[in-house]
Amino acid sequence: DIFAQNRYFDVEMEYFKDGPNDLFIQITATNRGPDPAPLHILPSLWFRNTWSWGPLPEDTPIRPHMHIMQDNPLGIHADHATLGSFHFLIDPSNTKAESGHGGGVSVTLHRLLFTENETNMDRLFGISNAQPYVKDAFHEAVIRGASTVNPAQSGTKAAVHYELMLPPGQTATLRFRLVEQSHAPREGYAFGQTFTDIRQKRRGETDEFYRRILPYAPHTEQYRIMRQALSGLLWSKQFYNYEVSRWLEGDPGQPAPPAERHTARNW
Question: How many CA atoms lie within 13 A of 13 on its CB side?
Fold first, then answer.
């Protein structure tokens, strides 16, 4: 039983903005179990693969790219022909004891990992991969210790590999920021009080929004249930493009799909 003696972690993800292209991210992990336990967290950034599947509506003339920033070893520079240039910034205080971590908490930043957001054709279809770095590289590197990530520290998919050691009931907090290059803050101003102030402001706005639209008092169970339900609806509100003809025939340059797709009942 994985829940015996509460042997699990609570991991809370918070996203909030200071503008359309300035996204703040906070990850809070808590050990609910009775013993100290390790936890690996890999916040990831990747480009949707629009270059390996034949013509797509959002295809770009230049393959996107990301790499470690030249002037900041705790930053990733990401370039896309239509989305623009962004910086993924890592809070240097994530590994410091004063960063809101509980007593006895250890946070280790192992390294930044890079690969390509490419399907592992060898594993799935027994076909040789066109290049050595594929999308499941991080799993292989962290779980099996395999040399599957790009040593040049560049690609179309990246992750920050943290290892946490959490005593019972203790919490660790990690902070990141994804911001358009032209709006990137000066060095030393990306986190700290700025991060805290924006988070508090957005939480206050969210509380006020739900107070206005929900018919229950904020301290009631009905209020909490309805707020969670509406939050899920807002979070999952998105467009899903299901192109049946392409699904039936398969993608150009890829292995042919099974013939059974033409007799499926769910489309």
Answer: 7
Q: What is the pTM of this model?
A: 0.85
What span, in angstroms and rounded, lies between the C-alpha atoms of 109 and 115?
Answer: 18
57 pLDDT tier (thresholds 50, 70, 90): low
Sequence-distant contacts of 231-239: CB under 8 A, at least 24 apart: none
* HEC string for the chain: CCCHHHCCEEEEEEEEECCCCEEEEEEEEEECCCCCEEEEECCEEECCCCCCCCCCCCCCCCCCEEEEECCEEEEEEEEECCCEEEEEEECHHHHCCCCCCCCCCEEEEEEEEEECCCCCHHHHHCCCCCCCCCCCHHHHHHHCCCCCCCCCCEECEEEEEEEEEECCCCEEEEEEEEEEHHHCCCCCCCCHHHHHHHHHHHHHHHHHHHHHHCCCCCCCHHHHHHHHHHHHHHHCCCCCCCCHHHHHHCCCCCCCCCHHHHHCCCC
Task: Answer yes or no: are the C-beta atoms of 100 and 109 closer than 8 Å.
Answer: no
| Residue of higher predicted confidence among 234 and 156 | 156
Whether the predicted pLDDT of 100 surpasses 60? no
Phi and psi for 9 in degrees, rounded to 5? Answer: -110, 140
Q: Which two tokens stand for residue 204?
A: 């206050």
Q: Assess contact for 136 and 46: CB atoms under 8 A.
A: no
What is the spatial distance between Cα 63 and Cα 241, in angstroms, rounded to a whole number? 22
* Among 71, 79, 81, 92, residue whose Cα is nearest residue 177: 92
First to last CA, the chain: 38
